[in-house]
Design brief:
It is a single chain. With 474 residues, this protein is of the alpha/beta class. Among the domains are: 186 residues, FAD/NAD(P)-binding domain, CATH 3.50.50.60; 92 residues, Orthogonal Bundle (Guanine Nucleotide Dissociation Inhibitor, domain 1), CATH 1.10.405.10. Helices cover 31% and strands 22% of the residues. The chain has 16 helices and 19 strands. Strands 1, 2, 9, 10, 11, 12, 13 and 19 form an 8-stranded mixed β-sheet that branches. Helix 1 links the parallel strand 1 and strand 2. The structure holds flavin-adenine dinucleotide (FAD). Flavin-adenine dinucleotide binds next to helix 1, strand 14 and helix 16. Its cofactor is FAD. It comes from Actinomadura yumaensis. Belongs to the flavin monoamine oxidase family. InterPro entries: Amino_oxidase, FAD/NAD-bd_sf, Flavin_amine_oxidase, Flavin_MAO, TAT_signal. This is Flavin monoamine oxidase family protein.
Length: 474
């Protein structure tokens, strides 16, 4: 990694000033900084961790290699992350998707092809029921203005119920209900009961670009969907290279503790981080609302923003990875993708590197599964992960060369993932505060994006949006 990626903040309370101080060197903060620098502004980025990327991270496998521990996939209409990767010379390759997927339900394992009409949806008894429900969701999502769900004609009604409530009154089979819960688990890593129907509809509406409206299929599919491609060398190559371009403008090990808004002549902000105080004309806070709430603001933020931050929890998520000599499931005609209704892991992917020099299986430990493992020892986590892989991919899966586990719910500077979600009542009463600047303080982060909120693409878009906003305000 570049020298700038490891340099600590100057010791002893150094002082610096810039036009703009960006808090957070995730994709959103780095993109904001890149565009502001390109616009001729001086910028300092303060990052709490010793590395860039935030929720994009190469998890060490213990053998000198890494596997995507956070964000991993990109797909069609995710144009801004695609453009950024291309700019930085980071290539893509297709997620392994040849063969059949595994479906594990009610103690029974079955295989299914994904090139039929249903795409990645497993054929359960409830499948027609499910298709009707998905069709309704798709139609409802069409009336949600992307990124402004509170303006949907039925916003009040849809934000007054959880996705659970809606899914139970709009389906009758256990199969359809399970698969709708699986949809929410695999996209948001929360349970259907945790999230507002309006939030889910906005998520569907946001899964597109300016010319292709969002749709459910694009969220869940591998082929033609958000899981279609991976990055050569791992997704962390993108923030690492972007941060290297910004050089020593990015200061690591510099958690921001307070942001003070100065009045009087010129105004501006004084931002105090461990080891450095930065004065600037504008600040960009580039992270999820829940994590931004750890920063002390003086004077206090407007209630709309302060209360939004109290109501926007992160999903509970981890990735469990097992490494094998070879991707043995491919020999058996399996994609490595699975959906399961029991065990610690409810969704899997083939995380093998492009040269297939070893086989890597990745399993998501989502929502309540993660919450239940909170106090589990590393041995217990490994046993639970391998038990899941064994059920889904057979005995061989129980004897990996090594395993690795990346939790996000206990990461101080993430608080969970993949994204902050809104329970009922939040988007309609507080949603506008997601992006509205508070004096010289501006907000970025994937949670603020219209298109592809929750994804790397949304993070990039939010950084680009906030850079324009700040540049115009300076
Ligand atoms: C397990 C997992 C799987 C995912 N899978 C995918 C996927 O396949 N595809 C996809 O597109 N997206 C995926 N995502 C989502 C994706 O990672 C995020 O949407 C995106 O990375 C968010 O970027 P961001 O800049 O908005 O926020 P972050 O990445 O959270 O960046 C915020 C930054 O601010 C820093 N910070 C926090 N507090 C402070 C402070 N007080 N002072 C200074 N710095 C601070 C943090 O350390 C961090 O670097 C996944 C996420 C997770 C966790």
């Amino acid at each position: 990694s570049p020298a700038s990626a490891t340099a600590a903040a100057p010791p002893g309370g150094a002082a610096a000033s810039a036009d703009v101080v960006v808090v957070g060197a995730g994709l959103s903060g780095l993109c904001a900084a890149r565009d502001l620098v390109a616009a001729g502004r001086s910028v300092i980025v303060l990052e709490a961790r010793e590395r860039p990327g935030g929720r994009v991270y190469g998890m060490p496998l213990g053998d000198g290699t890494t596997s995507e521990g956070g964000a991993e996939f990109i797909g069609p209409t995710q144009d801004r992350i695609a453009a950024l990767a291309a700019d930085l010379g980071v290539g893509t390759f297709a997620t392994y998707n040849t063969g059949k997927n595994v479906y594990y339900r009610n103690g029974k394992r079955s295989l299914y092809a994904t090139d039929g009409l249903l795409g990645a949806v497993p054929p359960d008894w409830g499948v027609f029921d499910l298709q009707l429900a998905l069709l309704s969701l798709g139609n409802m999502a069409k009336s949600v203005p992307v990124g402004e769900p509170w303006k949907a004609p039925k916003a009040e009604e849809w934000d007054s119920q959880t996705f659970y409530t809606w899914s139970r009154s709009n389906s009758f089979s256990n199969g359809a209900r399970f698969l709708m819960d699986a949809f929410v688990s695999s996209t948001l890593s929360v349970r259907s009961r945790d999230v507002s129907l309006l939030y889910v509809l906005n998520y569907i509406a946001s899964a597109g670009n300016e010319s292709s409206p969002g749709k459910v299929d694009r969220l869940i599919n591998t082929r033609d969907g958000a899981q279609e491609l991976r990055f050569v060398g791992g997704s962390q190559e993108i923030p690492v290279r972007l941060a290297a371009k910004l050089g020593d403008r990015v200061r690591y090990n510099a958690p921001v503790r307070s942001v003070g808004v100065r009045d009087g002549a010129g105004g501006g902000v004084t931002v105090e981080a461990d080891g450095i105080t930065v004065t600037a004309r504008r600040a960009v806070v580039a992270m999820s609302p829940a994590i931004a709430a750890k920063i002390h603001f003086t004077p206090g933020l407007p209630a709309s923003r302060a209360q939004l931050a109290q109501r926007y929890p992160m999903g509970s998520i981890a990735k469990f990875v097992a490494v094998y000599d070879r991707p043995f499931w491919r020999d058996e005609g399996l994609t490595g993708q699975a959906v399961a209704d029991s065990g610690a892991i409810d969704a899997t992917f083939d995380n093998t590197p492009p040269d297939a020099s070893r086989g890597v299986l990745m399993g998501f430990v989502n929502q309540s599964n993660m919450r239940r493992l909170d106090a589990a020892s590393p041995d217990a986590v490994r046993a639970a992960g391998l038990d899941s892989f064994g059920k889904l991919f057979g005995e061989k899966a129980k004897s990996p060369v090594r395993t690795a586990f990346q939790r996000w719910d206990n990461e101080v500077w993430s608080g969970g993932g993949p994204v902050g979600v809104a329970p009922p009542g939040v988007l309609t009463d507080f949603g506008e505060a997601l992006r509205a600047p508070c004096g010289p303080v501006h907000w970025a982060g994937t949670e603020t994006s219209g298109h592809w909120t929750g994804y790397m693409d949304g993070a990039v878009r939010s950084g680009e949006r906030v850079a324009k906003e700040v540049d115009a305000a300076l």
